[in-house]
Amino acid sequence: MRRGLGATVEEDRPKGSSATSSGSLEKPEVLRLYRKLMLARRAEERIRQEYGKDEMKTPVHLGIGQEAIPAGVCSAVPPGTTFFGTYRNHALFLALTEDSDRLFGELYGKVTGTAKGKAGSMHLGAPADGLMATSAVVGTTIPVAVGVALANQYRQSDALVVSFFGDGAVEEGVFWESFNFACLKKLRLLFVCEDNGLAIHTPADQRQGFRSLPEAARGFHCHVASGDGSDLLSVVALTRQMLERMAKEVRPGLLHFTYFRFLEHVGPREDFDAGYRPRPSDEERQRLDPVTRLERALCQSGCRPEELAVIRKAVEEQLERSVRSARAAPFAPEEELIRDVFSVDGQPSATDIRPPRCPGRGEPKQVLSFRRAINLALEHEMDDDPTVFVFGLDVPDHKRIYGSTRGLVERFGPRRCFGTPLSEDAMTGVALGAAISGLRPVHVHIRVDFLLLAMNQIANMVSTLRYMSGGTLRIPLVIRAVIGRGWGQSAQHSKSLHSVFAHLPGLKVVMPASPQDAYSLLRASIRDDNPVIFLEHRWLYDVEGEVDEGHVAPLESSLVRRAGKDVTAVCTSWMVIEAMKAAEVLARRGIELEVIDVRTITPLDEQTIVDSVKKTRRCVVADYDWVFCGFSAEIAALVGARCFGELAQPIERLGFAHVPCPTTRPLENLFYPSAVTIIRTVERMLELEEADVTGESFYSYEQRFKGPF
Ligand SMILES: Cc1ncc(C[n+]2csc(CCOP(=O)(O)OP(=O)(O)O)c2C)c(N)n1
Description:
The structure is a single chain. This protein is an alpha/beta fold. The chain has three domains: about 30-330, Thiamin diphosphate (ThDP)-binding fold, Pyr/PP domains (Rossmann fold, 3-Layer(aba) Sandwich), CATH 3.40.50.970; about 365-550, Rossmann fold; about 560-705, 3-Layer(aba) Sandwich (Rossmann fold), CATH 3.40.50. It is built from 24 helices and 24 strands. Helix 2 runs parallel beside helix 8, helix 5 packs parallel to helix 6 (about 175-185) and helix 12 runs parallel beside helix 19. The N and C termini lie far apart (about 75 Å). About 50% of the residues are buried. It binds thiamine diphosphate (TPP). Thiamine diphosphate (TPP) binds near residues 136, 137, 138, 166 and 200. Thiamine diphosphate binds near residues 138, 168 and 199.
């Protein structure tokens, strides 16, 4: 018998409109779907059963009532589709993998889990099966899905991406940022909202100032449809219709499904008596339960109950085996703790720099400005590797990020060099999505301060995703950002924040201070398979120096910029320039300052610093940041521990005054440390009289820069 099973669905019409259409599925296909539905349902009921034993130590967000949405959508999309989800992800994971062994392995925190027990229920992933990531932070995977869709478009692939999220996520700015960008770029991306009308315990009418998501979305260039997420057959039919529409007119689709969540927000219990929602009647339960609905539809179309019983039995047996083997499996061995942070396993500070594909060209050495060195590094990497692209706010405008992206759009076209909407958070997720798709994005920001808007992506996703994928995903992503100073940059255009970024495991942080390093380290960063935050001080842009295009600088090598025997100055970014000036002035009195340019904050080349201090026995850290809780404290701790018995003086730390950066120059001069501060510190350490420096010419940016920005 081959009978089709019908489904009725709502189309892209405002509420109240009566348009309907139907789709049909063959019986074997529906039975396969029934199996997936039952696998998800019974897996979660099994979790409920086992949870009280306190062996499964992970917060579980059970989706009983919601299973038809992932099962239906996943069955309707073409092979090769990529998926992203939320913490309520068990049904999605099982719809794609049917692998209850890896699911329970991860829930029990065992080495057999999806991420060897490093991720837990809220972060299930299965990249080989298309499930790239799920996340505990609401809305966070949405822009990453957009990034994968962008990568597909970049490669001229028709592959589809599906992003699942709850109704709470649409209150997050990142949803609208992502949705806007996907519509702008006409990406092949299906947004799927699983709407149960609640965010934890708060109903939508207390959270949302719009009538409905479909209505709100209709102002965008996309396809929209709504349906009943409790009815698996209509989920399939609606998804298929949506894909047809997306094929006819390529632009994102938004599918909005309503459903009922039967259990508490997190945990294994019902919570109908908690006072925030009524207990459904038996009749309502039947209507809202996707399993009951599908069983009824199957029976009505002539399916025998025994056929379903066979499926249920097989599911039961599979789950029994999975639970047993997960409980018996070992926890990850000790060495797993530090594995999967960076792409070189087990070596958090290692760098995996490959030799440059294009070691040198043209003049082997030439004098270049810092800005041109950056520009040339981008040009050469883009030349060498078609997966490298550069994007960010204002990247292709006439100013070209102080000239550092000059010529790129003309040479490589708007596909590989483009501007973005004002959406730092989403665009960082987009860069991440592109990176895990195998591209090498360089995302550019005109100020470090603006990166604070992208902190969720940086701190919760970019830096953690490799670890939470159990080392499966690679993240070759560079975030370039400019540190502002002078001409009234003030408190919100002047931050460096390298200590903040370096604090996060999983990120590399690079601060070049010369044209050679700008060139070599940017090329190394782009070739690195890990996320790199690349911080460029604005005042360095005009600094000129010799650049050898064949020179390779690995991302874990500090540089002795000037040798000396009396005091070691450990410097970052612009402070290298100030220290070099201080060394020049001190040298006239016969004092030898050894200047170390740290270059990479993480991974840190500790040895160069330790060797230097062991030689000079005196250390001043001149950091381009606030002192309190900053990188200078890290260096002081390092030197204190490794050079303890050899220090002739306490370690000195120089940095910003502990106030927000002021605007006016006289106050700014007090805020920043300078060559003079270094000179005075060294004199104090050596118990020398203060020298008269009034005749010296110290650097003043205003001598070259006439504002306003
Ligand atoms: C950015 C962020 N804010 C707050 C939370 C706490 N939180 C966890 S789940 C949740 C509700 C989300 O509701 P919804 O998106 O509708 O998904 P559902 O739980 O209903 O599946 C909240 C507020 C979070 N995880 N992430």
